From TrEMBL:
Protein name: Sugar phosphate transporter domain-containing protein
Membrane topology: Multi-pass membrane protein
Provenance organism: Gossypium harknessii
Signal peptide residues on this chain, from the entry's feature table: none
CC terms in the record's Gene Ontology section: membrane
Zinc listed as a keyword: no
Highest classification ranks of the organism: Eukaryota, Viridiplantae, Streptophyta, Embryophyta, Tracheophyta
Superkingdom of the organism of origin: Eukaryota
Amino acid sequence: MLCSREILNFLIRKDVKKILKRKDSDAGQRGKALEDLRASIFNKFRSSESAKRQQQRICGPIAALTFNFMVAVGIIFMNKWVLKNVGFQFPVFLTFIHYAVSWALMAILNSFALLPASPPSKSTPLSLFTLGVVMSLSTGLANVSLKYNSVGFYQMAKIAVTPSIVLAEFIWYKKKVTFSKVVALTVVSIGVAIATVTDLQFSLFGACVAVAWIIPSAVNKILWSNMQQQENWTALSLMWKTTPITLLFLVSMIPFLDPPGVLAFHWSFNNTSAILVSAFLGFLLQWSGALALGATSAISHVVLGQFKTCVILLGSFYLFGSNPGTTSIIGAFIAIGGMSFFTYLNLRDKKQQPQPGLQVSSALPKSKLSEGNGDICDGFGTETV
């Protein structure tokens, strides 16, 4: 519907009607004008800039964060089912299956020309390679940490990701965080620490994995957010480019972090179906996470993850009668209060910042028809969003 409406609006524009209705142009000029028109339409709806604008219109910050939150909660329960009830005790190989299914789904979209176009080569092969590597380390080590540590210790380790992101963004991009946001993030971290302090079970190996996971997780979020916001990548196009690299490095991690015996696993219909459902949710999680990082920031995405933990804790207490303890419940409410304050600060900053127009101009040569009408424009003129 959106594309049809935009094509109709484009066709009724003044400059386009001049091209189509010009009576005194010869056949050669008319043919060139139609060729320019067709190339312009293709540019508008298949270029990376257009795909990026469509993603921003359809999936804004609130929609992206909500989508990511719902999928993240769903995959937690599904992965728990796969690891416990199905008995698939191979976290890195499970991550490999997730990315393999994601790549297969994107290959299907690409075969039908439904995958958004990649932007012009602003990103170096090294940056795409780095993103693929840190993706494999971030997701693979996270699942290994969940296997050997309790959820509480995993969340405590996640607290360290926030200052890591702040420090890395300051070093790389000279980004500064206001004092008010520092206070809000500190309140969030204290609240999560209080909420999870009663569940700090870990092994030495699990603790080492959790510490090793912090830096790749922070770098992963920063790169995803920066490459989408600064270089016109869409979530799906960036996933398409980096997933093969991630799969390659996950294969190299399996012998070192997974226990032996994956080939001896009982691949029944029910077990395989549960793993494939988990993999499909993994694709949605990766996509929704990329959308959220492209629409907001790395820090906002981490805060969303902490919010998810608190909601699950309070939801289990209210719906299922679990008793995490008064201390944990108080900590969850403190964290939610800090998250609400942080969200308010972000919304206030967005309202205060001027919205610069995105200048998009076609590189097509001017047709003689346009010159003859005295118009100085390209296929679309200049469009601001």
